[in-house]
Design a protein that fits this description.
38% of the residues lie in helices and 24% in strands. A hairpin with a 5-residue loop joins strand 13 and strand 14. The strands form 4 sheets. It has a 9-stranded mixed sheet with strand order 3-2-1-4-7-8-13-14-15. It is of the alpha/beta class.
Length: 279
């Protein structure tokens, strides 16, 4: 059982705290925000919902950002007053925690935090395998759910990769019930779902919270499955320091492996173009 710090008690941070708490797989969740009274109030609301949700995770609020030092995972979310931690303001906060001795992985939950992830690697020299982004994970989950409805089966396996908002769906390798998804869903419906991608970005707080909680748990305890999430590339695809979503193997507080799914030539071209690379 472990300790998770969430930087920001805004809508995203609060939703993630609630989701992690109700899954009851970590010992302690700490909401940290300059508006300490609001952070404490939201933490109290989550704790009071415990008897109904049947969880007893310790949830607290504080205004001391250095309270995140010592956490097993640090989630960078959104402040009550100023919204998502991003840009130079976000970089200063991450730098403060790094200088204070934090060695935890950073999970960037906001949709506008791609630059912050890259800057943490480039300027603060945080190892790329300790930087994960989860807002695009909500889009991957939404696409899988839409495809399941279209196929009339649960458990669609489809990869969504790339650099948001220019994400690429790997329809060519998507499967359901042990068969190619294309056997269940006609090409024009797959195209319609691809065209719906821009309307799924940016995702809302509750959509972000679910995959973020799973990523946090996988970082702490490992996972038997791959998780679609943002990672800072470290030489893959001739790219270094560029963030992109890929299926990731997570565990031991870091990205253990980045996996490139099978893509058609067109899908691979779109993916590489989104990274600013030639296919």
């Amino acid at each position: 059982m472990s300790f998770v710090a969430i930087l920001g008690a805004g809508p995203i941070g609060a939703a993630i705290a609630h989701r992690i708490a109700e899954r009851a797989r970590v010992r302690d969740v700490r909401l940290i925000d300059d508006k300490a009274d609001i952070a404490s109030g939201k933490a109290l609301d989550i704790r009071q919902s415990g008897p109904i949700g049947r969880f007893d995770t310790a949830v607290s609020g504080t205004g001391d950002m250095l309270a995140a030092v010592g956490a097993d995972v640090i989630v960078v979310a959104d402040a009550v007053a100023d919204g998502e931690w991003q840009g130079e303001r976000g970089l200063a906060l991450v730098g403060q925690l790094v200088r204070a001795g934090s060695t935890a992985p950073f999970v960037f939950a906001g949709a506008a935090q791609t630059w912050l992830m890259e800057a943490a690697a480039r300027e603060l020299h945080v190892p790329a395998d300790r930087l994960i982004g989860t807002a695009p994970s909500a889009v991957a989950s939404a696409i899988a759910a839409l495809a399941s409805v279209e196929a009339g089966h649960t458990g669609v396996n489809v990869s969504v990769v790339g650099r948001p908002p220019a994400l690429v769906i790997g329809w060519s390798s998507a499967t359901v019930a042990g068969s190619a998804l294309s056997e269940f869903v006609p090409a024009h419906r797959l195209l319609a779902m691809s065209q719906a991608l821009p309307r799924l970005w940016p995702p809302g707080p509750q959509s972000i919270a679910a995959p973020t909680a799973e990523v946090v748990e996988a970082l702490i305890g490992g996972s038997r499955r791959l998780h679609h999430a943002m990672t800072v590339l470290d030489g893959e695809f001739d790219a270094r320091g560029v963030a992109a979503m890929l299926p990731l193997e997570l565990g031991r507080g870091r990205v253990l492996a980045r996996v490139m799914p099978s893509l058609s030539p067109r899908e691979r071209t779109e993916f590489m173009s989104g990274l600013g690379r030639r296919p």
